Amino acid sequence: MSPIKPSAHLAEVRYEIRGALTRRARELEAAGTPIIKLNIGNPARYGFSVPAHLREAIAAHLHESEAYGHEQGLEEAREAIATLQRARGARHVQVERIFIGNGVSELIDLSLRALLQPGDEVLLPSPDYPLWSAATILNGGVPRYYRCLAENRHMPDPEEMEALITPRTRALVMVNPNNPTGAVYPRALLEQIVEIAARHRLLLLCDEIYDEILYDGAPFQPLAEIAGTTPCLSFGGLSKVHRACGYRVGWLSLSGDPARTHEYRDALQLLAALRLCANVTAQWAVIPALQDAPTINALTAPTGRLYQARQAVLDGVASSQFLDVVAPEGAIYAFPRVRSDAIANFDDNAFALRLLEEESVLIVPGTSFNVPNSRHMRLTLLPQPAQLREVFVRMERVLERMAVEETPRAAVAAG
């Protein structure tokens, strides 16, 4: 009998954060090899805990969590989100323009499904968080990538962005603070991007899931305040700042001119209703998460674990013969690269596989984030600083072997 063929859409979709390298790591673990995993931003797997008062809020409302909820989410939780967004300067944000989903991942898919016709284009960063590309493709859209180069501190070039716009462009996506680079976009840059979106009547979508994870005083600027009446979706959630990935609670806030967005809002509501509702139980954690004192600051302060892990990465790069990096200003990742003057013919996927097979370290190669010919790798900052220091010792050994192997080839080519 002939095999069942999957959708042709999937041929263009990648998610190597949990892909072939991860599967190989599991095989090595099953054979008894301990693996240091730097591939995923899952705080609980590295010993971080959800703040106790969030757990207590869920426990106190278990008896109210047994029926389907409103398709847009608990009204009390949506009011807390709307209050936060208005305090940040978002225009026209009301409870009926807030949607809670099973994580931001679900809402990214829902928001693009409500927007795109086949062949519509979406401007995405390169590197991107690959779910944005996947959701664009799976909903019939076409990704168009604007570069965020290390030479520009991983900031986009507004002129390059605008040059990519065609009559089929519908939306412009940003991730700020950025995954995978840790870049935090300054206000002046965001103002330029908003002007482009307004001029071309594009919908702005800004993934702000890392909004409070900041280092060395880097300021986070919410996009919705600058967008004003320009339609804008702002995404947030509990998974990173509140270390509650497994709760699967994310939200989107629709701001901007209601006259331009009311049909789109209704489309979002239809799609939300078709999946009935988001997980009710975990939504009770939203109110204390947003209204009580923040708990992330102790981790990002100079004495905090995330800050110290970031410093271990910066120190490891500084001591390397092969690496450089733009210091991350936010989020929980670093995006170092192998210098071309150190190893000319570098393949990031081959390096990641060798690092796993030879030194038992799992990373994500930069090409996984839709960067062509990447020399980068993404490392999570969640392991203990001491373990990150050990990672750089192992990484340097593999890079030294690769450099030695390249020398004979270079001599032959020169001869």
Strand adjacency order, main sheet: 2-8-7-6-5-3-4
Strand element count: 14
Q: Label the structural class.
A: alpha/beta
Radius of gyration: 22 Å
Q: Estimate percent helicity.
A: 25-40%
The number of helical runs is 15
CATH superfamily descriptor of the largest domain: Type I PLP-dependent aspartate aminotransferase-like (Major domain)
Q: Note poorly predicted spans.
A: none
The biggest sheet amounts to: 7 strands, mixed
Shape: globular
Number of domains: 2
The CATH topology label of the largest domain is: Aspartate Aminotransferase, domain 2
Order of helices and strands: HEHHEHEHEHEHEHEEHHHHHEEEHEEEH
On the 0-100 scale, what is the average pLDDT? 94
Distance between the termini: 56 Å
CATH architecture of the largest domain: 3-Layer(aba) Sandwich
**In what range is the share of β-strand residues?**
5-15%
CATH level-1 class of the largest domain: Alpha Beta
Q: Would you spell out the secondary-structure blueprint of this structure?
A:
Elements (H helix, E strand, L loop, with lengths): L19 H11 L5 E2 L14 H9 L14 H13 L10 E4 L1 H11 L7 E6 L3 H9 L3 E6 L10 H6 L5 E7 L11 H14 L2 E5 L15 H5 L4 E6 L12 E6 L2 H17 L5 H4 L2 H6 L5 H4 L4 H14 L4 E2 L8 E2 L2 E2 L9 H12 L1 E2 L1 E2 L11 E4 L4 H30 L1
Parallel strand pairs: 1-12, 3-4, 3-5, 5-6, 6-7
Antiparallel strand pairs: 2-8, 7-8, 9-11, 10-14, 13-14
Helix pairs in contact: 1-14, 4-5, 13-15, 14-15
Family: Belongs to the class-I pyridoxal-phosphate-dependent aminotransferase family.
Keywords: Aminotransferase, Pyridoxal phosphate, Transferase
GO molecular function: transaminase activity
